[in-house]
């Protein structure tokens, strides 16, 4: 695992953005060579706080991606199960996820894989737990009754299949989850811990998120910052991954 | 990048690198248009899976709705009140000329004139939709002649008139009011309340101005249907703390409950009104604020002396004065 520790939220955002940009450029994507970027999903479209709106305003409208290449889970789908299965199909068709980027909840969940989710789960409908519903209330004017209680989400297994996983964690309220995710064992109660079993995971966090970690851990990874920053400049050291992709 | 043609074959235009006016603020955002209508790019992206056929770089310009000028006496050498040779052509010249200033609709304004002039001019100015060839003509604004001679400003004394016989005098003066949409009158003149009622019943906006009216006279006029004030502060008695006169209408509680809001024109050139006076009016009643140019024939012409129909106008710096005097004559 790589653990990149930066001063604050803005620095984390910038570093992560640069990293993703570097990865995409190094990959040299094209019409026959998709760089598939995975991002977490969920609330119904049309709602101003839906991920569709969020993704449009914060990402898609600023880049020249073709609409047909943007695949979002549709929370309004009639047959939600079919929608999830279809999503998994789309991922396979695009050649698998090259890089998945996500955050974690205070309960250590990745996407909406709440504590107790199977660590080999696939894209499916999940009922949200109370903590998550409360955390999401801020998007609905603080009115808990408005918050959706179900969401479509990629599974832990789905993300584990990605060739690289990047998790962003900021704030003191996430620090305990980060501790559980990387200093304790793999547990379905802290689903992010599953990535201890993934060959290429990178956690990017701010100082506050490290508050529950051992000083030793933090010192070790901070010492590697020069190496981490090199990742932003050089070509990726896995040219073979490109050849695997073009079938 | 062609749009997906499931909804329409028309081209999609994306205006980039621009600022738009929305919900009372200006912010950076692209504007997407198809078939002359603004479309929702999010819907286009997710539902139609479409994108822009043409992208236009606006170089940080602001995209805003076209301006509406309800008081403009002419421009580019044309004076609506005294250009009789080619009236339609004159109006068209102004309509075209103001487009590049962002004005897409206007009310050609006729200042206090004689019966003969109204007979000649009014029938020739038609309400007309706008387009590439010129701004929309909303209708005529007849500013006078039923105004106060003490507050006539640049209007000629011999053209002042009254309507002691009520609306029949009005029809006698203007002759054809079919394209009149705004009338400026002084509500202290006898029979004003009847005349105002008649105009309002015919769908004409009654604007109070060039007047010596007190606040209560103004309030009566509003009760009878007046809904606009012509160039606030100019050609009326000033705000006085014991009788704010027409300026007081901005804060009166005596307006009828079904009157939506009282609007007031403001000539915001920094010369006709002191910016502080403007701000006071705006802070008192922002919703009613309507910017007007009150532009004269000299608008669009360079510095110097110009003949505009009945008067000589002198342009000094940014001021247009009646030649030989210090009286401002609109802008």
Automatic annotation (TrEMBL), chain A:
It is found in: Cytoplasm. GO terms for biological process: carbohydrate metabolic process; glucosamine catabolic process; N-acetylglucosamine catabolic process; N-acetylneuraminate catabolic process. SUPFAM superfamilies: NagB/RpiA/CoA transferase-like (SSF100950). Its EC number is 3.5.99.6. GO terms for cellular component: cytoplasm. It is an enzyme of class 3 (hydrolase). It catalyses: alpha-D-glucosamine 6-phosphate + H2O = beta-D-fructose 6-phosphate + NH4(+). Keywords: Carbohydrate metabolism, Cytoplasm, Hydrolase, Isomerase. It comes from the Eukaryota. InterPro entries: Glc/Gal-6P_isomerase, Glucosamine6P_isomerase, Glucosamine6P_isomerase_CS, NagB/RpiA_transferase-like. One of its GO terms (molecular function) is identical protein binding. Residues 43-196 form the Glucosamine/galactosamine-6-phosphate isomerase domain. Homohexamer. NCBIfam families: nagB. PANTHER family: GLUCOSAMINE-6-PHOSPHATE ISOMERASE. Belongs to the glucosamine/galactosamine-6-phosphate isomerase family. This is Glucosamine-6-phosphate isomerase. It comes from Lingula anatina. The gene is LOC106174471.
Automatic annotation (TrEMBL), chain B:
The keyword Thylakoid does not apply. InterPro entries: Amidohydro-rel, GlcNAc_6-P_deAcase, Metal-dep_hydrolase_composite, Metal_Hydrolase. One of its GO terms (biological process) is N-acetylglucosamine catabolic process. It holds the Pfam family Amidohydro_1. GO terms for molecular function: metal ion binding; N-acetylglucosamine-6-phosphate deacetylase activity. Binds 1 divalent metal cation per subunit. It is an enzyme of class 3 (hydrolase). Its cofactor is a divalent metal cation. It comes from the Eukaryota. It catalyses: N-acetyl-D-glucosamine 6-phosphate + H2O = D-glucosamine 6-phosphate + acetate. The keyword Transmembrane helix does not apply. Zn(2+) binds at residues 143, 210, 231. Residues 62-274 form the Amidohydrolase-related domain. Keywords: Carbohydrate metabolism, Hydrolase, Metal-binding. The active site is at residue 294. Its EC number is 3.5.1.25. Belongs to the metallo-dependent hydrolases superfamily. NagA family. This is N-acetylglucosamine-6-phosphate deacetylase. It comes from Lingula anatina. The lineage of its organism: Eukaryota, Metazoa, Spiralia, Lophotrochozoa, Brachiopoda.
């Amino acid at each position: 695992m790589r653990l990149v520790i930066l001063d604050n939220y803005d620095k984390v955002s910038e570093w992560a953005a640069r990293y993703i940009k570097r990865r995409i450029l190094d990959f040299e994507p094209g019409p026959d060579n998709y760089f598939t970027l995975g991002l977490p999903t969920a609330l119904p479209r049309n709602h101003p706080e839906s991920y569709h709106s969020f993704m449009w305003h914060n990402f898609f409208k600023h880049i020249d991606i073709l609409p047909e290449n943007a695949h979002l889970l549709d929370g309004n789908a009639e047959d939600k199960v079919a929608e999830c299965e279809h999503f998994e199909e789309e991922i396979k068709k695009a050649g698998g996820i090259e890089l998945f980027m996500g955050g974690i909840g205070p309960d250590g969940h990745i996407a909406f894989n709440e504590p107790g989710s199977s660590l080999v789960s696939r894209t499916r409908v999940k009922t949200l737990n109370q903590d998550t519903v409360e955390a999401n209330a801020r998007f609905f004017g603080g009115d808990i009754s408005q918050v959706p209680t179900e969401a479509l989400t990629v599974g832990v297994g789905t993300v584990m299949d990605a060739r690289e996983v990047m998790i962003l964690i900021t704030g003191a309220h996430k620090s305990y989850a980060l501790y559980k995710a990387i200093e304790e064992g793999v547990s379905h109660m802290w689903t992010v811990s599953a990535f201890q079993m993934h060959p290429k995971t990178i956690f990017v966090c701010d100082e506050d998120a490290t508050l529950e970690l051992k000083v030793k851990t933090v010192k070790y990874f901070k010492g590697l910052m020069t190496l981490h920053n090199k990742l932003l400049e050089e070509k990726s050291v896995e040219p073979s991954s490109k050849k695997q992709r073009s079938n | 990048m062609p749009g997906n043609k499931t909804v329409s074959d028309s081209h999609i235009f994306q205006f980039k690198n621009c600022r738009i006016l929305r919900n009372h603020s200006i912010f950076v955002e692209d504007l997407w248009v198809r078939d002359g209508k603004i479309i929702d790019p999010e819907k286009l992206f997710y539902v139609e899976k479409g994108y822009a056929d043409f992208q236009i770089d606006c170089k940080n310009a602001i995209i805003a709705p076209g301006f509406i000028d309800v008081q403009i006496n002419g421009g580019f050498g044309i004076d609506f009140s005294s250009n009789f040779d080619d009236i339609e052509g004159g109006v068209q010249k102004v309509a075209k000329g103001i487009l590049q200033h962002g004005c897409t609709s206007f009310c050609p304004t006729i200042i206090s004139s004689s019966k003969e002039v109204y007979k000649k001019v009014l029938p020739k100015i038609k309400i007309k939709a706008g387009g590439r060839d010129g701004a929309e003509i909303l209708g005529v604004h007849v500013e006078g002649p039923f105004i106060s001679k003490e507050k006539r400003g640049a209007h000629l004394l011999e053209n002042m008139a009254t309507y002691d016989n009520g609306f029949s005098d009005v029809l006698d003066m203007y002759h054809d009011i079919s394209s009149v949409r705004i009338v400026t009158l002084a509500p202290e003149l006898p029979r004003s309340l009847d005349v105002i009622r008649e105009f309002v019943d015919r769908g004409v906006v009654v604007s109070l101005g060039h007047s010596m009216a007190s606040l209560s006279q103004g309030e009566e006029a509003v009760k009878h249907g007046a809904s606009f004030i012509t160039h606030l502060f100019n050609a009326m008695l000033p705000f006085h703390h014991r009788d704010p006169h027409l300026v007081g209408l901005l804060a009166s509680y005596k307006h009828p409950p079904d009157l939506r809001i009282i609007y007031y024109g403001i000539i915001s050139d920094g010369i006709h009104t002191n910016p502080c006076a403007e701000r006071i009016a705006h802070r008192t009643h922002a919703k009613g604020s309507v910017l007007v140019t009150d532009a004269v024939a000299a608008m669009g012409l360079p510095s110097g002396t110009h003949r505009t129909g009945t008067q000589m106008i002198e342009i000094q710096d940014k001021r247009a004065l009646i030649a030989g005097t210090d009286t401002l004559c609109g802008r």
